[in-house]
Predict the 3D structure of the following.
Amino acid sequence: MSNQSVDSKSSSTAVSRLSKLHAALLTPYDAKDKVSVRCLHRLVAHVKQQGIEGFYVGGSTGEGLLQSIEERQTIFAEVAEAAAGSALIGHVGAISTRDAQTLAKSCAALGYDAVSAIPPIYFSHKKDAVIGYYKDIIEAAGGTPLIVYNIPAMSGVTFTLDDLGRLLELPGVIGIKQTSIDMYQMEQLSRIFPGKLLLNGYDEMLLAGLVSGAKGGVGSTYNVMGARYLELAAKAKAGDIGGAAKIQSQCNAVIDELVRVSVFPGMKYLLYRQGVIETPMCRRPLVTLSSDTAGRLDEIAAELSR
Ligand code: MN9
């Protein structure tokens, strides 16, 4: 068998293993702003209890870019232990290629199913440099596949369909976490690259994403509404689009409130109120919510715990 066919076989195995809903895992801190390993384990158990079988670790929701490399490595290791048996994607994106490579090596050594990375931020790199960054990460990952994290609203990097096509054709790239409201692009990607893994990134558009060709999703709000999203995805798969849309609307009523107060601090506050984590703290400059600034979240936390 040629190397290439071995490669495409292992990549199709990874695509099918990762074709599911992954919680974008939050990072709990203690009162001194240290990563709370205890609460991290509790949060993983809480997410699994809802039926979610995949974890996206250290992304936007996990506050990865606000943490040191050592903290990010600790989180990867703790989640690998707490979520053993689940599908694991480690977000290794960083402003410097070297840091992203260090993190990719850690994930590979821990047996993560894939690594993922935002494009390099702040400097406006030419597209070739961005492609070079992804190639360097793939090399460091030593055979662990890569999922490109496309999130133009937060990264400031807009990829055209051609750019994404170039990335998907790099050996080692199995898919894209597509956090974009452009469902036309989602449909185009799924049609042109049917063997690749497209994961929907905006929870409020999960149904739209699935209908447009996503094979699963990654979501922050799956940490608290995992069972609802699983039901939504099952209904969509069975062709019950009306039923799925009803669940999407229920989820979106919660997301509206989270967006109003700020999504990640809001998610932390909900889990804190549900008794899953011990503080609602986020790493500054993200804000930490209190009952005065949490809008309707006290009510929503009670509703979700019912
Ligand atoms: O990873 C998350 N992406 C970002 C996924 O926050 C950038 C989403 O789950 C959003 O938090 C969610 C609310 O807008 O869709």
